Amino acid sequence: MGxxxxxxxxxxxxAQGIAEHRSKAALLLIDxxxxxxxxxxxxxxxxxxxxxxxxxxxxxxxxxxGIPVIYLNDNFGKWQSDFRKLVEHCVNKESRGRxxxxxxxxxxxxxxxxxxxxxxxxxxxxxxxxRYLEARTLILCGLTADNCVLFTAVDAHMRDYDLIIPSDxxxxxxxxxxxxxxxxxxxxxxxxxxxxxxxxxxELAVIKKPNEKGKR
Length: 216
Description:
Blueprint: H1 2-13, E1 25-30, H2 41-64, E2 69-74, H3 83-91, H4 98-103, E3 111-115, H5 126-133, E4 137-143, H6 148-158, E5 162-166, E6 170-171, H7 175-189, E7 192-194, H8 201-205
Parallel strand pairs: 1-2, 1-4, 2-3, 4-5, 4-6, 5-7
Helix pairs in contact: 6-7
């Protein structure tokens, strides 16, 4: 419900109904707000540490290009919590994820969606938020390639979104699991797998006006 509250508050502030962010693309950061205090969390935290710098750099470039950032995060079964409490939980204790979360802290103009299951679309306001932002291309980053990134990619594919996954911005508990997941996503969903350095974010962000259809 966090995305819905943020969406409605921004609509009230804008009498003309113009979205603060309008971009053909959106950057989704999946489960990066994480304490990694679970079985297998130590391995995953080591892998996440390796990609956190790349995600932070991609986020900076994306925001400079006008691409909105959506934190898409598991609620870890904490039904009475919210996104801000999850952030506080991860940075205010000596958890495995503290340094990662501190590198990827959300900013005031970022969006957030809490998800109860693996996919970012299942029982969430994500699709409504994406329509509000007018985004049709989703750049998926975060954790894990063989679980929540995979499930979110499948649901996005079913909804006809264009997908890009920068391989240096996703992680799994082992390199093998990551490779297998990305191979599956590429082969079955026909998703573009590249590196963050190869993304032309300015081009991805452009929304063509009605009289620009068919032009490049």
